[in-house]
């Protein structure tokens, strides 16, 4: 069945099919923008090579069968050069937002490697999405790095389009989620003075439209373009306008001057799902006024006849997608910086060492489909079926220690794909109807997985639910951690299994 054109669906871009199928490469394809750009390029008639370090994370995407997956690390010269062979346009959507110290050096090295590889592979254009920044000396580290990456790509010898955007408005955007939760959860708040700085937000639909259109720029065009929506607002005005669009009372917002970016980011991380390491660069960027100085992009990618999407309409569309559980990608689509990436202990390449397991199996008087439906909807609003207080405390402890905590929730309330975030877990493997494996991204002294599987039971119409918690400790601290929490496994994991069993049996029609 042909996939519906995304121009028909609110947040997505409108564009016309390309006359020939040209090959474009997209990096950052597992991230927020990259995951949305791929289907737009396909709809425009391009052939897409999706570059990712782990292409298994692309499984389950609606467009996975229509692209060429290519496993490569953009920081590896040989791998990325091979990935760019035969490519006409390369989209560079990589950044280390919220990845901790030395992220500027990491961004610099990766951009230099990519630029050289693109030149050697004969790429005809690079397109990069950076951050809108004022022309001042003391930029935030995040904006300074985004600016430097743009300059590196422009100096590559390959014609380059650098698009600079401020706050992106769309369901799942980190900037949008931060504003959304601050507004919804705090009817009254004291805020830093940056709430009165001017910002020119832009709808994700228009960002995607500019990205797709940039592929057709003539070779003599190699420059930076500011992109923004039709309105310039303060953050205070954005929160008030969001409240109105969401049907909330007007918010009481009092600006104070004592909150530094660091304190502001900690405050944001306590109120919203956005963790402090990610909130801090976002907050630091808001310290500056970010307003477009030109609209030259319209010479090459004309504005749509109805104009760029206004703020209120962008918010309405985003809220509709959240309500309909139709959020294609989220800020949490990208992995947590520093999260473990070692292989599962059962994988052939595992190096061995101490390994602890908590394994539980139970018979369920429900079909495998009923049990799988419960497994696939774990986390988020539904929770974990056991001792809610213990999960909440663990989430708070993780949040305080710099982890994601439980507030990330889920992208979709009932369906999971490889790479999805589920509270402080990451989906590592999904075999529909059979197996769900979650990798822990919480802060623990070791590596941890939770594996859930379902199979036919001993009697017709029944199922066997198997639950395995796996922990590979790091050093003595990891050993002590396991033994300190082991006494609670019966309550937490045992209760979880009993709760899932009860839920599956409750939803099964009596014969």
TrEMBL record:
NAD(P)-binding domain segment(s): 28-167
Region (Disordered) location: 331-351
CDD domains per record: SDR_a2
InterPro entries from the UniProt entry: ComplexI_NDUFA9_subunit, DUF2867, NAD(P)-bd_dom, NAD(P)-bd_dom_sf
Highest taxon above the source species: Bacteria
A Pfam family: NAD_binding_10
GO molecular function terms listed in the Swiss-Prot or TrEMBL record: protein-containing complex binding
Entry protein name: SDR family oxidoreductase
Source organism: Actinotalea soli
């Amino acid at each position: 069945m042909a996939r519906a054109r995304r121009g028909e669906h609110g947040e997505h871009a409108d564009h016309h099919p390309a006359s020939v199928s040209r090959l474009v490469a997209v990096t950052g394809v597992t991230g927020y923008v990259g995951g949305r750009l791929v289907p737009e390029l396909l709809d425009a008639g391009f052939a897409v090579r999706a570059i990712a370090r782990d292409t298994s994370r692309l499984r389950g995407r609606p467009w996975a069968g229509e692209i060429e997956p290519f496993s490569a690390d953009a920081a590896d010269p040989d791998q990325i050069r091979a990935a760019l062979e035969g490519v006409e346009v390369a989209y560079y959507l990589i950044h280390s937002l919220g990845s901790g110290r030395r992220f500027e050096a990491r961004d610099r090295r990766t951009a230099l490697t990519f630029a050289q590889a693109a030149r050697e592979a004969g790429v005809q254009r690079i397109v990069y999405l950076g951050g809108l920044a004022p022309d001042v000396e003391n930029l935030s580290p995040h904006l300074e790095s985004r600016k430097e990456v743009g300059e590196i790509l422009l100096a590559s010898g390959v014609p380059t389009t650098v698009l600079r955007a401020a706050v992106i408005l769309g369901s799942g955007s980190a900037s949008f989620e931060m504003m959304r939760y601050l507004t919804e959860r705090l009817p009254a708040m004291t805020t830093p003075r940056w709430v009165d700085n001017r910002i020119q937000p832009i709808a994700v639909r228009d960002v995607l439209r500019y990205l797709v259109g940039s592929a057709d720029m003539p070779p003599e065009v190699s420059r930076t373009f500011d992109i923004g929506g039709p309105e310039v607002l303060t953050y205070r005005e954005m929160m008030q306008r969001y409240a109105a669009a969401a049907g909330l009372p007007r918010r009481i917002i009092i600006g104070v001057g004592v909150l530094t970016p660091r304190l502001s980011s900690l405050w944001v991380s306590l109120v919203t799902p956005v963790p402090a390491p990610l909130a801090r660069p976002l907050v630091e960027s808001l310290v500056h006024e970010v307003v477009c100085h030109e609209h030259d992009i319209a010479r090459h990618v004309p504005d749509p006849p109805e104009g760029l999407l206004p703020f209120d309409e962008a918010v309405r569309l985003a809220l509709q997608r959240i309500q309909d559980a139709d959020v294609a990608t989220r800020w949490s689509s990208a992995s947590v910086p520093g999260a473990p990436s070692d292989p599962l202990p059962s994988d052939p390449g595992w190096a061995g060492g101490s390994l602890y397991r908590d394994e539980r199996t139970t018979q369920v008087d429900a079909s495998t489909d009923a049990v799988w439906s419960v497994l696939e909807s774990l986390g988020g609003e539904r929770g974990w079926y056991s001792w809610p207080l213990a999960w909440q405390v663990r989430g708070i402890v993780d949040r305080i220690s710099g982890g994601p905590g439980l507030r990330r929730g889920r992208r979709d309330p009932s369906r999971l794909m490889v790479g999805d975030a589920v509270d402080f877990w990451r989906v590592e493997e999904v075999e529909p109807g059979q197996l769900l494996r979650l990798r822990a991204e919480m802060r623990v002294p070791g590596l941890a997985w939770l594996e859930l599987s379902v199979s036919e039971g001993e009697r017709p119409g029944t199922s066997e639910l198997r639950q395995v918690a796996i922990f590979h400790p790091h050093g003595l601290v990891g050993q002590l951690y396991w033994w300190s929490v082991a006494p609670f496994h019966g309550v937490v994991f045992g209760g979880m299994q009993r709760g899932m069993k009860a839920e599956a049996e409750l939803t099964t029609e009596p014969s």
